[in-house]
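Lecture notes, unit on protein representations.

Consider one protein chain, 149 amino acids long.
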Amino acid sequence: MSPFDRIDVKSLIAKEKNGRMCVRLMALSHIEESANNSQTARNLHISRRIVNDWLNRFYAQGLEGLKEKPRTGRPSRLNEAQLVQLSEYVRNNSIKESGGRLNAQTLVHYIEREFKLNYGISNVYRLLHQLGFSWITSRSKHPNTNSGN
């Protein structure tokens, strides 16, 4: 009995929300439809070695073998207390009564001044995401604008 006999790959692809897992399932679909590993890799614009690895994991562990493994990544240079302080600063300064808004460059300077650490703008955006903030903003209000209009 083939591992493909127990699953409906096409319906799994349709339901999958994770893009990486979707590509892995598409690779399974190609293999199930008699494509070889090289053809599958070419069709999905990935290396044949990756297709081989995915198939080996699928045959050994089933769909569970295709799931993402936890990634630790580099630990944050800010400790928990500093992250809380940064979060408070963002909450308290994101909307200004006089108009304008908080920007990433301001946060870069704040982190440098308060914590003696150099962060780039892209890392500030990553930190904000980690802290649960969204960087979608509305247009700022000019200080001389009438509030009634």
